[in-house]
Amino acid sequence: MIIGIGIDIVQVKRMDRWLKNIPLLKRYFHAQELILASSRKNSEAQTLAARFAAKEAFVKALGTGFVKIALKDIMVFNRENGKPDIQLFGTAKKAFEESGADKVHISLTHEKENAIAMIMLERV
Question: pTM for the whole thing?
Answer without folding.
Answer: 0.94
